[in-house]
Amino acid sequence: MKAQDGLYIDGAWRPAGSKDVIDVVNPADEQVIGRVPAGGALDVDTAVRAARAALPAWAATPPAERAARLTALRDALAARRGEIAGTVTAELGSPLAFSRSVHAAVPIAVVGSYAELAATHAFEEKVGNSTVLHEPIGVVGAITPWNYPLHQIVAKVAPALAAGCTIVLKPAEDTPLTAQLFAGAVHEAGLPAGVFNLVTGLGPVAGQALAEHPGVDLVSFTGSTAVGRQIGAVAGSAVKKVALELGGKSANVILPDADLAKAVHVGVANVMSNSGQTCSAWTRMLVHRERYAEAVELAATAAAKYGDRIGPVVSAKQQARVRGYIEKGIAEGARLVAGGPEAPREKGYFVSPTVFADVTPEMTIAQEEIFGPVLSVLRYEDEEDALRIANGTVYGLAGAVWAADEARAVAFARRMDTGQVDINGGRFNPLAPFGGYKQSGVGRELGAHGLAEYLQTKSLQF
Fold first, then answer.
1. Does the active-site annotation cover 124?
2. Among 15, 183, 237, 434, which one is least packed by beta carbons within 10 Å?
3. Percent above pLDDT 70 for the chain
4. For residue 72, which phi and psi values (nearest 5 degrees)?
């Protein structure tokens, strides 16, 4: 890995406005592996101006040509697949196998899906005596998190490019090297100068400057609900559109007739994946009281098998946060059946895979997003009680339902206040819309619904 010492603006790597830098730390051994510029408000302004200058020509580019550039971007990313996986492992701590199969492979597939959509989407349609135009919304300010550093970039940049928008990206400061690799792929794909711009920097500085900039027409943010509220307030004052993908506290509901062993096994794996740093993770497992003891034993056994193979969390700050929640769970009376607050290694930001039993819905660990490898197992009396618990948080991002009778599972899922539900372990679909109800966000990502976020509508009457 070689970190770029500049910002990617207007088609070239350029020096930042100050000498300030951000250290990139490997969370597995706490060693500095690179440094990137800490861009500021002046750098953001330069990038936004470049994006605005490039907007008219890119918006007027035929969809088929935009599709060709996205195909070239997909191919450039595919050629870097090994380097992407290694970089994500180094700066996020993800095990290399997971980095290859998820962190590198899934974003490549998503870019390919938007290449197809750009070529086939109906950007014009006839409605009675009107022609309805779907036009690019303009300059996009994209602010992305560290937990899926390339996927979250692609989920914003690919549909924006397909729509004809130009972009300024501010990636998470913990994982900026992956964003630099993406910028290199963009350059190789031949996008016109200014269409895509990258400013690395701190959230309260570069991120805030991007959200507030009057030259930005849409702010797309993925991260915490608290920061999402701030961005929404800033955008609202300027009557600016936002797309917000925020926190989650998703319920994994195991109905009494389900294959309990499979549901628990998959549920634990879902929570431990990416070291628990997944906004849509099923961190609340709901089990009928008659099968509760068996489920707890299965979950504890499954979690114990992971050991520290799941990799570290991203930073010392995140490690302290997660361990604090584990201590809070113990203090509030939950029963620890696997893991605990003690770090499993002296070096690195590791957290033990942890499972709590006897968790009640009002406990902190059942209400707040922990963002670590921590599972809470709750009991319910009947389906109505399960539904009340499942819907009983401020979040509504994802969830799961298990039942031998698929129709029963679907009927339950229809009543859940959440944006996405997996039925009996349904596979990830990169074309299905992803996003939340309630305080889990506004708007959708992926597929045609994700493309629609970056379009505005005009009607011509004849």
1. no
2. 237
3. 99
4. -65, -35
Are the C-beta atoms of residues 43 and 7 closer than 8 Å to each other?
yes
Closest CA to 93 of 133, 148, 164, 48: 148
Taking each helix axis from N to C end, the angle separating 63-79 and 149-163, rounded to the nearest 10 degrees, works out to: 160
pLDDT in tens, 309-339: 899 999 999 999 999 999 999 999 999 999 9
The tens digit of pLDDT for each residue in 354-371 reads 999 999 999 999 999 999
Q: What is the pLDDT of residue 1?
A: 62
DSSP letters, 226-249, are: HHHHHHHHHHHHTT-EEEEE----
Edge-to-edge strands of the sheet including 7-9? 12-14, 7-9, 196-198, 166-170, 139-143, 218-222, 241-245, 441-442
Query: Residue 383 has which token pair?
Result: 């389906």
The region, left, alpha or beta by phi > 0 then psi within -120 to 50, assigned to residue 271 is alpha
Average pLDDT estimate for 396-400: 98
121: its two tokens: 């989407």
Which helix (H) or strand (E) segment holds residue 263: the answer is: helix 260-272
Q: Is 245 a catalytic residue?
A: yes
Of the residues 91, 165, 279, 453, which is catalytic? 279
Q: Please identify which of the residues 91, 212, 245, 369 carries the catalytic annotation.
A: 245
Alpha carbon 107 to chain centroid, angstroms: 11
pTM over 0.85: yes
Amino acid occupying residue 55: L
Calpha distance 222→365 (Å, rounded): 22
